[in-house]
Amino acid sequence: MRATAKAQPNIALIKYWGKRDVDKNLPAVSSLSVTLDTLWTKMTVEFSDTRKSDDLIVNRASNQVLLPRVSACLDHIAGVDRRRASIVSEGNFPIAAGLASSASAFAALVVAASKASGACHDNLALARIAGAASGSAARSLFGGFVELAAGETCIDVATIADASDWPLSVIVAITEEGAKPISSGEAMNRSAETSPFYTSWLEQQAGDLAAARAAVLARDFAALAAVSEHNCLKMHSVMWGSRPPVIYWNSATLSCMEAVRRLQTDGHAVFFTIDAGPQLKAICLPGEAAEVRATLEACAGVIRTMESGLGAGAILLDSK
Ligand code: 2P0
Questions:
Q1: What domains can be seen in the chain, in order of their start residue?
Q2: Dihedrals φ, ψ of 151, to 5°?
Q3: For residue 101, what pLDDT is reported?
Q4: Across the chain, what does the average pLDDT equal?
Q5: Using an 8 Å Cβ cutoff, are 102 and 132 in contact?
Q6: What is the pTM of this model?
Q7: What atom of ligand 1 comes closest to residue 10's alpha carbon?
Q8: Which of 16, 31, 238 to mutate to test the pocket of ligand 1 (most atoms within 8 A of CB)?
Q9: Contacts of 242 (CB under 8 A, 6+ apart)
Q10: Confidence of residue 167 (pLDDT cuts 50, 70, 90)
Q11: Which among 42, 20, 44, 45 is positioned nearest to 30, based on CA atoms?
């Protein structure tokens, strides 16, 4: 009746941007991500016969905004006539700031709720349920390098290489701790409706994904860097071309990008990616992490950095 699960956020190298079906939250494009290890969300779900309504606490504060999405996700796991639940979430990084907090939150939620309710969903079924709540969450059920294939009616998700197969480091430069100005879901829909670049984005995704998959399987850092930066900048070009424009970057984001490009010129194995927020994520070989981190910390406007390796998918911590 009570279970706690832990999940890590993931960073997409080939991005999910756009929905095939808004109601079912089916992504319009496939994506490829890396699951992190040091950033986490822990989620405890407890179903009760006596409780009259669901209750959600996020980082020790009641959260009414996220509650409907969480309740809908529990309905998917345990059925609409399920018992009501207390849901308690705790994380070690900023939420709703382009750091994929919804990915780790919903991945941990489905694992905890599945166990607490006695439902017997396998990992792919859990990924599909998590993805219906937050597209990127489906990827956090799996560890290492994860590919999400966007089908006509459902998604498929799987690890294509384990974290230990190719240990990379990720440095996150936090340039703003507040919530983002527009949710990624709303921004995606605006891009689909108004950006003149959206159709090209859809058309080119399969090619980018194939190049990234080949680079991962060959452990070809330079090839992965090139296609990942291209895909990231193309996604942001789609956003910038939307009306009104969707601009998540600030001046520190650009400073960080410039710093990464300087490191590349100096021969360092590092590349950047940026999601629906102003934080820059630098991906590098582990031996480069200290220098990349110090360089990003020295950029104007960087509040702090976080460092992570690649990690495992969501796991159950305990239940009773
Ligand atoms: C990604 N992002 O692939 C892309 C890149 C943001 C930029 O997935 O609407 O919060 O809940 O399905 O999962 C953010 O998307 O969106 C995201 P919804 P979600 O990581």
A1: 2-162 (3.30.230.10), 169-308 (3.30.70.890)
A2: -90, 175
A3: 78
A4: 96
A5: no
A6: 0.96
A7: 20
A8: 16
A9: 187, 190, 191, 194, 195
A10: very high
A11: 20
